[in-house]
Specification:
Elements (H helix, E strand, L loop, with lengths): L1 H11 L3 H8 L3 H10 L3 H19 L6 H10 L6 H10 L14 H6 L2
Helix pairs in contact: 1-2, 5-6
């Protein structure tokens, strides 16, 4: 029943409340059913997570969101930096940040 209502709402662009009233179905029941379905974005994220984790660990945790996004695009997988960053964060992965090099003032004095 809910699948039919969903098709009518999507194809014919009718208001969900009007279709639910016509079919004698509660709107809250329809929306609860609709929220149980996995969205295309969530499905795509579920497919991307293993690939992103593989790239992250393949490069020993040194690749962050930008580099992983470039790697994905070189493999022909379209995914933006923000999405990669979000998926890395949901997996609890953070790239290793190298320490900045600061020359010691003492070494500069002694080398002259």
């Amino acid at each position: 029943m809910y699948a039919g209502i969903d098709q009518i709402v999507l194809r014919e662009r009718f208001a969900a409340s009007a279709v639910c009233d016509l079919m004698a179905v509660s709107r809250s029941g329809f929306y609860a059913w609709r929220s149980l379905q996995e969205s295309r974005r969530a499905e795509r994220d579920r497919e991307l997570v293993p690939v992103i984790c593989e790239l992250f660990w393949c490069h020993r945790g040194r690749y962050g969101a930008r580099r992983i996004a470039v790697e994905l695009s070189s493999r022909g997988i379209a995914c933006g930096v923000a999405r990669v960053a979000k998926l890395l964060k949901t997996q609890g992965l953070r790239a290793i940040q190298p320490k900045s090099y600061w020359p010691s003032p003492l070494k500069l004095v002694h080398s002259v």
